[in-house]
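User: Teach me something about this protein's shape.
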Amino acid sequence: MLKVAREKARQLGINVKFFKAEAEDLPFPNDFFDFVISSFVFCTIPNPKKAMREIIRVLKPSGKVIFLEHTLSDSFLINMLFLAPLELILRPLIDDSTTRETHKLVRKFFRVEREESYYKGIVRFIVARPLW
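Assistant: First, the predicted structure itself:
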């Protein structure tokens, strides 16, 4: 992904730095970013609570975080017939959890300003600010 991003930035003439880091241990100072964007990553983070705390740490007090994540569905039937069997396949292959409730975890760390739910809650778009 970094190789593709670097090439795309080069093609577009954009001067940008790319970093590879663990979400639970970000290499940035406190209060560094105006925005943090998380796009389909919380399904694979080993310690999601620690990653949420890191987002808060690097986010400026006036900052926002945007999540686009797949989560447990609002539909029991979809969870049992689709997400649970999919997790049996993806967990051992790529350590991906299709049944995480990231949308609920977000509320423990952030004040949700906007939430959109797609495909019966399998995909959620959330805009939030730190609770402080």
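Now, about its shape. The chain has one domain: 21-130. Strands lie at 33-39, 59-70, 110-118, 123-130. If you'd like, I can walk through any region in more detail.
User: That's plenty for now, thanks!
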